[in-house]
Design a protein that fits this description.
- The chain is an alpha+beta fold and 84 residues long.
- It is extended.
- The chain has one domain.
- It has a four-stranded antiparallel β-sheet, with no helix packed on it.
- Helices cover 19% and strands 31% of the residues.
- The longest helix has 9 residues.
- The chain is built from two helices and four strands.
Length: 84
């Protein structure tokens, strides 16, 4: 067990991120990237604040925007849901 932990501790992964741009969504809290069967990838984002109602937004075209470098052009769409 100690050898396994030592091996994990010694393992290094060189990982580099490059900013692709961003879009604004006030009070974003939880997000998930998903897709339906036979659909494009999309992001679901829930928002809430201490003194505000929460909402759910869908952001279509996430995968293509990352590949094309057009993340700043993404437009969140507010879904018509009950207030929570």
């Amino acid at each position: 067990m100690a050898a396994a932990i030592a091996g994990l501790t010694a393992a290094q992964v060189d990982l580099e991120f490059t900013e692709q741009g961003y879009f604004k969504l006030k009070d974003a809290a939880f997000l998930s990237v998903d897709k339906f069967e036979d659909s494009d990838d999309f992001m679901i984002v829930s928002t809430f604040g201490p003194l505000a109602s929460g909402h759910i937004y869908m952001v279509p075209g996430v995968k293509d925007a990352v590949v094309d470098g057009t993340v700043s052009e993404l437009k969140p769409i507010k879904l018509d849901t009950a207030k929570f």
